[in-house]
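Dock 25A; give full complex structure.
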Amino acid sequence: MAKKLWNVAIAGATGAVGNQMIECLEERNFPIGKIKFLASERSIGKVLEYKGKPVQVELLDHDAFEGIDIALFSAGGGRSLEFCPSAARSGAVCIDNSSAWRMDPDVPLVVPEVNPHAIAGYTKKGIIANPNCSTIQMVVALKPLHDYATIKRLVVSTYQAVSGTGKKAIDELRVQTGEMLNGRPVEAKVYPHRIAFNCLPQIDSFEPNGYTKEEMKMVNETVKIMESPIRVTATTVRVPVFFGHSESLNIETEKKITVAKAFELLKNAPGCKLVDDVAKGVYPMPIDAAGQDLTFVGRIREDESIDNGLNLWVVADNIRKGAATNAVQIAEILIRDHLKG
Ligand code: 25A
Ligand code: L14
């Protein structure tokens, strides 16, 4: 029997995440029949490549999904709200990278290493949501610890790269850094303040409770993905790094986890790489995680201020595991276990 091939569309193919989705599909040899690249009018006429062959960018509109089996979305929340339902009506399963559908009870929110079983719920709306980049790497690292010792409370602080905001933010850090080094005045357009040589304790806009939307995404998405009432508090910070988010995690568990036990659990955990040899100055850093699909964990130590507490440092490429790779991994499970070949 011939192997089934799937028709795939990428909405937002010209963006930072869209570009990475194309690369991930190529690298992982996803069984593609037809590929379609969709974006706004700005990109019409642009030609991208898939496996060395030219593909014209087409307009993202309601009838762009005819004959498409899987639609990967990364063109912003507004576009996902508007176009995922039409794509689903055309028979495509949408894997959406935006925050638009994540907390919808009829939409599964999936990290393959953590809750692959939830994918089955895609039939309700034809949409599967990809979590926030900071949430994804955090739950990949926490899942094995939670299964062993049950996490009650989690305190997270993030150090997030500019690529999370898309291509225009990558340009902003590059341009501002150049201007600063040349002693010229800088202009902040994408972020509310200068990002070069600075840290911004604001990602996305503020909610009435004083937290940012990014912080509340980490709180709410973690509970949904882990399927457990973990109490989470977050502080999310933008730092002048291009690729790779870092996170400081502090957890309190029901049962004690020694450092040796944490090493053992994380050494064999799916999607994780333990990088922890402080005597040699070895720990995860964004410069090493960039371009990789794994979640790197290190600086593991007991929190000596409470009975059952542990500190960890977690780093991953926010555009790969935090967005594109996770979406393509979901698509792989979808075609393996759910869609009819
Ligand atoms: O605020 P929103 O709407 O929720 O958007 C969120 C932003 O976050 C990024 C993405 O940025 C998006 O703009 N993003 C989304 N999910 C992400 C995730 N999980 C994420 N980033 C990180 N992690 P981006 O610039 O990388 O990608 C934008 C993509 O979306 C397409 N798009 C935008 N509006 C669209 C649309 N497609 C269809 N219809 C629309 N109305 C966009 O395609 C791109 O693929 P494009 O054709 O509009 O842009 C092509 C090039 O133009 C640059 N550009 C963007 N905005 C402007 C612009 N140039 C000039 N003026 C502008 N206003 C882009 O940088 C791109 O190179
Ligand atoms: O997926 O870093 O909800 O600016 C929203 C903001 C992704 C990244 C999401 C950022 C994001 C983002």
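Observed: The CA atoms of residues 77 and 317 lie 21 Å apart.
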